[in-house]
Amino acid sequence: MATHQANRAAIAAEVHEERLSPSQSVLESVLESAGRLQLNADVVGLLSTCWREVRAQLPVRMDDRKLHIFEGYRVQHNGARGPYKGGVRFHPRADLDEVRALAMLMTYKCALMDLPFGGAKGGVMCDPARMSNTELNRLTRTYTQHIGSILGVARDIPAPDMGTNAQTMAWMMDAYGQKYGYTPGIVTGKPVELGGSYGREQATGRGVATCMREYARSEGVSPSEIRVAIQGYGNVGSWTARIAGGMGFKVLAVSDVKGGIFNPDGLNITDLDRWFSVAGSVAGFSGATPITNDQLLELDCDYLVPAALGEVITAKNAANIRARVVVEAANHPVTPSGDRILGQRNVTVLPDILVNSGGVTVSYFEWTQNIQQFRWSLDRVNEELETRMVQRFNDLAARALKDGTRPRQAAFDIAVERVAKAILLRGFV
Ligand code: NAD
Prior knowledge:
This protein is an alpha/beta fold. Helices cover 49% and strands 17% of the residues. The protein binds nicotinamide-adenine-dinucleotide (NAD).
């Protein structure tokens, strides 16, 4: 009977979820917070909509001389707290609504971390894995030309995200510089040789691992007793595996788009990296058993770290998640219905706007270094990141305890309150 009712609840949640686009899903958290904070309707209107959305046609001559027309976007959600900041995603599913959702998350992530930025995001609907370096270079330059007029060191500063990296940022900086003059602070996540910050590449994974360590400390459990599964072995997933592994966590399983691997005794990350550098995938690694991405998500482990795509834990699979903690390293990996089911099952969800904020935090350090034309040492970057991550983790835990809310609710309450205050102080309403 109880199972029957749980199934009916899951189906009802699923039907509700199917009606929500990614931006509507993010908006749910914002509107819930606005309700708890009793914000006025004008402020809620500004928090709920995007200030500017650019959609551009990007014609690119491919290596076979055929012209391919890509579609690209830059969405600026809210700039009340400072210049817009947010990554650029190259992915076949990067449509306008997804980019809008990610821009909103950036506003609240920057506010939660108390960084002087608003939120933006960019995207190009393309499959970088199927494109040559010269095609990606041409696409990046065309994209930068099309959105260049709304960028600026004090206006909007892009960074890498899924499918883009330091090389993409170097091309963006160069394309922008050709028109506007040498401007290293126009993007963050650049190569160190071009004014990038030490520690930026591993910063998001370092922040994820720091949150895992702090949560383990709050539970009174040693990392060596915690079994971890990580979906995604790109920038965020692989650095999380290395740094969390270095802290003593037992990383049992990882995956990428080609599949996953599992070893109940823990993976040897150094050997895995050696394999990855040759094979270009974790799949096929000899020190483990192959598993699918779906099996990884439902693995018997303590901490589950989705570090690839959004919306991978939904009403369809939330009841099957066996981890007791979900650490949201990816943006928006858990849908609202999935989140409700995890909540009913007492699974703790550490929210993306805290967990993966190490990247934008070190991007902020990079931006300030560019403005000052000064470079910090790696030790200084890592120390400042550590201090901020631990402080914000503690702020969130204290707010959740005070209000009796779940971590995501506490995170949005802190962030929405800060953005709302900036809107009022500026006199927007
Ligand atoms: P990436 O492109 O470096 O890596 C993405 C990984 O996901 C790869 O291992 C890829 O194989 C895997 N993947 C892609 N499609 C998949 C699928 N269908 N199933 C399973 N795995 C799949 O990207 P990244 O920079 O590591 O970003 C990962 C997530 O973290 C994204 O949600 C991104 O928005 C978020 N994020 C990234 C940063 C950053 O600094 N890079 C900062 C904050 C948040």
